[in-house]
């Protein structure tokens, strides 16, 4: 039997009290304070294989950390074995073939920095310190998705370590069923140690426009913004949010344009004409700057909770609920969550729904309600407020992004993320690749006998 003391690793093994142990178990949501029995900081595929086999011999739960952004903290198993892929962070770009090979622990920023010197990119989220692995396995939204599809739509092949510690490749021609499941099925089937991405000629320029309106005046603004989104070109991803300020709640509408900024300027007068903005911001960051602009907001020092939905329609009643954020009136309190919308459509919807595990490609907007705070005494109130904001949009919801599920949603959340027929196919795939449900610290698709 393998023991921790006899383990041979290219990386290192950490246990409580070791230098680096606490840093390795710290993730994006500061509410997560679990203590794994051991942490394997993997630097090679061999390390991942060794860690999986050790965990199975010792009957320890396995958690897998890429960027640690999952709000439920599923990467950190209490008294289990955490496989930290962060040291496996290499990115290799072939600018001729427009391909990138990305190790499983790389962050989105590393992918962007490697590809942008060639004017290339692929869909890679909105926050640069998000892990490529977690984002992509759940689907992977980003500013390029309306032009080039989700992150998972741009994966050419995966290298994966199975529950038995074997190394396999999945692509359209090799293990195609597994390839189908990895494109949106989360971390249910194994540990992906390398992604091969298709890159696109995107250039390095962007345009970001944001217009602030008083929430009291924002119903017709959001109606007009919604209608503009329906005719917007694919270079534009429309956004909206509602947030509290010292002078009262504000609704912000706008868009992010990836490409020549001059070609997106025609949208600005149409947005200004929606009402009387109290402020506006029109900037032209580089694509790298765009990908980093929310990094401070997404920092690692806060306690966090969120609720989310997919919306196919956004009628006036939903707009009113969006503005209220689950409260009785617009100025109900200071602990209301921020709420936001990001537009789907375009190339996302071009892919047939049956082509990948990712679901709900007919979504118009993704809705999220998120709270962040620092004091543990506020936990209950903050979480309840985010739940209320999400519940207010329940009547208009049609599914959810699996990466946005809260831990307590359990199997109900999984059923929201995947329609019944697709969940049945995912269950059959899980039964083939992980019949013992070794990889269950995720939004779990259970094998058929479970």
Please describe what this structure looks like.
The protein contains 14 helices and 18 strands. It has helices at 21-25, 45-57, 108-115, 132-138, 145-148, 176-182, 218-229, 267-272, 287-292, 316-324, 347-350, 379-392, 410-417, 420-433, and strands at 12-14, 38-41, 62-65, 81-84, 91-94, 99-103, 120-121, 155-161, 167-171, 191-198, 200-201, 206-214, 236-243, 250-258, 279-283, 303-311, 338-343, 365-373. It has a seven-stranded antiparallel sheet with strand order 15-12-14-13-17-18-16. A five-stranded antiparallel sheet has the order 5-6-10-8-9. The chain has a four-stranded mixed sheet with strand order 1-2-4-3. The longest helix has 14 residues, at 379-392. The chain is globular and about 70 Å long.
Write the topology of this structure.
Layout: E1 12-14, H1 21-25, E2 38-41, H2 45-57, E3 62-65, E4 81-84, E5 91-94, E6 99-103, H3 108-115, E7 120-121, H4 132-138, H5 145-148, E8 155-161, E9 167-171, H6 176-182, E10 191-198, E11 200-201, E12 206-214, H7 218-229, E13 236-243, E14 250-258, H8 267-272, E15 279-283, H9 287-292, E16 303-311, H10 316-324, E17 338-343, H11 347-350, E18 365-373, H12 379-392, H13 410-417, H14 420-433
Parallel strand pairs: 2-4, 3-4
Antiparallel strand pairs: 1-2, 5-6, 6-10, 7-11, 8-9, 8-10, 12-14, 12-15, 13-14, 13-17, 16-18, 17-18
Helix pairs in contact: 7-10
């Amino acid at each position: 039997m393998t023991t921790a003391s006899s383990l041979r690793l290219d990386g290192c093994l950490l246990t409580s009290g070791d230098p680096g142990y606490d840093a390795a178990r710290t993730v994006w949501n500061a509410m997560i304070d679990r203590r794994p029995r051991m942490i394997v900081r993997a630097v090679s595929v061999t390390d991942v294989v060794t860690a999986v086999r050790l965990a199975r011999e010792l009957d320890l739960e396995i958690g897998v950390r890429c960027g640690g952004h999952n709000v439920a903290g599923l990467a950190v198993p209490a008294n289990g074995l955490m496989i930290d892929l962060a040291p496996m962070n290499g990115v290799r770009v072939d600018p001729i073939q427009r391909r990138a090979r990305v190790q499983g622990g790389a962050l989105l920023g590393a992918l962007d920095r490697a590809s942008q010197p060639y004017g290339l990119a692929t869909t890679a989220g909105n926050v640069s310190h998000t892990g490529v692995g977690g984002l992509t396995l759940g689907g992977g939204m980003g500013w390029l998705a309306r032009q080039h599809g989700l992150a998972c739509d741009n994966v050419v092949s995966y290298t994966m370590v199975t529950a038995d510690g074997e190394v396999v490749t999945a692509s359209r021609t090799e293990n195609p069923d597994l390839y189908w499941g990895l494109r949106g099925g989360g971390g249910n089937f194994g540990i992906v140690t390398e992604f091969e991405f298709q890159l696109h000629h995107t250039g390095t320029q962007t345009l970001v426009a944001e217009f602030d309106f008083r929430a009291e005046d924002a119903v017709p603004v959001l109606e007009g913004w919604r209608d503009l989104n329906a005719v917007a070109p694919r270079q534009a991803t429309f956004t909206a949010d509602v947030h509290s300020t010292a002078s009262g709640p504000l609704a912000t509408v706008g868009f992010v344009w990836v490409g020549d900024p001059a070609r997106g300027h025609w949208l600005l007068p149409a947005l200004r004409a929606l009402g009387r903005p109290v402020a506006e911001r029109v900037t032209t960051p580089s694509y790298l700057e765009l990908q980093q602009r929310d990094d401070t907001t997404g920092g690692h020092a806060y306690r966090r909770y969120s609720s989310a939905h997919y919306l196919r329609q956004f009628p006036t009643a939903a707009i009113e609920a969006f503005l209220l954020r689950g409260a009785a009136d617009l100025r109900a309190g200071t602990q209301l969550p921020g709420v936001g919308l990001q537009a789907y459509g375009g190339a996302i919807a071009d892919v047939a729904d049956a082509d990948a595990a990712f679901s709900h490609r007919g979504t118009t907007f993704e809705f999220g309600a998120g709270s962040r705070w620092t004091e543990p005494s506020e936990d209950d109130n903050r979480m309840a407020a985010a739940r209320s904001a999400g519940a207010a949009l329940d009547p208009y919801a049609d599914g959810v992004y699996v990466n946005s599920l809260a831990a307590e949603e359990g199997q109900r959340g999984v059923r929201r993320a995947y329609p019944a027929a697709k969940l049945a196919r995912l269950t059959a795939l899980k039964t083939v690749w992980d019949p013992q449900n070794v990889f269950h610290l995720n939004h779990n698709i259970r094998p058929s006998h479970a």
